[in-house]
Design brief:
Elements (H helix, E strand, L loop, with lengths): L1 E6 L2 E7 L3 E6 L4 E7 L26 E2 L11 H6 L18 E7 L4 E7 L13 E9 L3 E9 L5 E3 L1 E3 L2 E3 L7 E3 L5 E4 L5 E4 L4 E2 L4 E5 L5 E6 L4 E8 L3 E6 L1 H5 L13 E8 L5 E3 L4 E12 L3
Antiparallel strand pairs: 1-2, 2-3, 3-4, 5-11, 6-7, 7-8, 8-9, 9-23, 10-22, 11-21, 12-21, 13-16, 13-18, 14-15, 14-17, 17-20, 18-19, 19-23, 20-21
Bound molecules: 6-O-phosphono-beta-D-tagatofuranose.
6-O-phosphono-beta-D-tagatofuranose binds next to strand 20 and strand 21.
């Protein structure tokens, strides 16, 4: 059901239920792969992935916390909160650090795993002290991820975050994302202009957009694999849609030159106006459920 394995330098957990296999790295509590028996994988993992301590693994579901992306591109309250962080890496502080596996509850057709990030007492400057971070993973017919932050301190905490999910697709030229129509988005590749999405999103080049005011469900229509992959989120109204396309791919680590054709990131997030403020004692969760449905014949 749940087996501890080592990949390179990393401790990983292989989870099997009656119909699916899930692989998670303890470092960063990073889901690495998820596949249901007899189906194409839902989550993409680079063929060039390397498993090194302190280094992100390319693919899966990196946890971006306590800020998303470039700290300097975050709301002032988030920048202010972590201004002391040195270094201040892209996507925050915890995706390359060790988490703890607190609890496993494995049944034949469902598994629950609870990962916790226990902050170092003498964490580097800028840590959001007294915030408990948990990733709860529930696998049944779907994969459910819930990232919860509990402010155990006496001061309010601001943060931005994302579950940076890399989806496997048959061919980026052929898929489209449904459910975005009418939403506003920030076009980070054109001076962070705010625009409105008309119709479904198709991919014709590098795409790196922050969608705002999203509905709970968006889907990836993948005709070649005869399926729709659904994302149902809660605690989030924003998501980042990213494909590096050709040129940016060449600048990415652990990324084969043609890999851009087979992956698509839709990152369930709390960013920009959707960033999180935790009052003293408050707990909030960012959650997403992922599953695929065959296209009706
Ligand atoms: O989520 C989109 C993004 O911010 C892209 O701009 C790209 O930087 C991607 O994340 C991957 O970032 P990483 O630090 O994991 O290589």
């Amino acid at each position: 059901q749940v087996e501890r394995i080592e990949l390179g330098e990393l401790v990983c957990w292989r989870v099997r239920t009656s119909g699916a296999e899930l692989l998670i790295a303890q470092q960063g509590a990073q889901v690495l792969s998820y596949q249901r028996d007899g189906e194409a994988p839902l989550i993409w993992l680079s063929e060039q992935a390397s498993y090194r301590k302190g280094q992100g693994v390319r693919g899966g579901v990196p946890v971006c916390w306590p800020w998303f992306g470039d700290l300097q591109r975050n709301p002032a309250a988030v920048q202010q909160m972590y201004r002391g962080s040195d270094p201040a890496p892209a996507h925050g502080l915890v995706r390359n650090l060790d988490w703890q596996l607190l609890e496993v509850d494995a049944r034949a057709d469902a598994v629950d795993l609870d990962f916790a990030f226990i902050q170092p007492e003498q964490g580097p400057a800028g840590w959001p002290h007294n915030v408990d971070l948990r990733l709860h993973i529930h696998l049944d017919q779907r994969l459910h991820l819930s990232l919860s932050s509990h402010n155990r301190g006496t001061q309010p905490v601001s943060l931005s975050q994302a579950l940076h999910t890399y989806f496997a697709v048959s061919d980026i030229h052929q898929v489209q994302v449904e459910g975005l129509a009418g939403s506003h988005y920030i076009e980070t590749l054109h001076d962070w202009e705010e625009r409105t999405q008309h119709g479904d999103l198709v991919f014709e080049g590098e795409t790196d957009r922050i969608y705002l005011d999203l509905p709970e469900r968006v889907s990836i229509l993948d005709p070649a694999w005869q399926r729709r992959v659904h994302l149902h989120s809660s605690g989030s109204r924003s998501a980042v849609v990213w494909n590096p396309w050709i040129d940016k791919s060449l600048r990415l680590s652990q990324f084969a030159s043609d890999a851009w054709q087979r992956m698509l990131c839709i990152e369930t997030a709390n960013v920009l106006d959707d960033a999180v403020q935790l009052a003293a004692g408050e707990r909030k969760s960012l959650a997403v459920s992922l599953w695929a449905e065959p296209l009706s014949r």
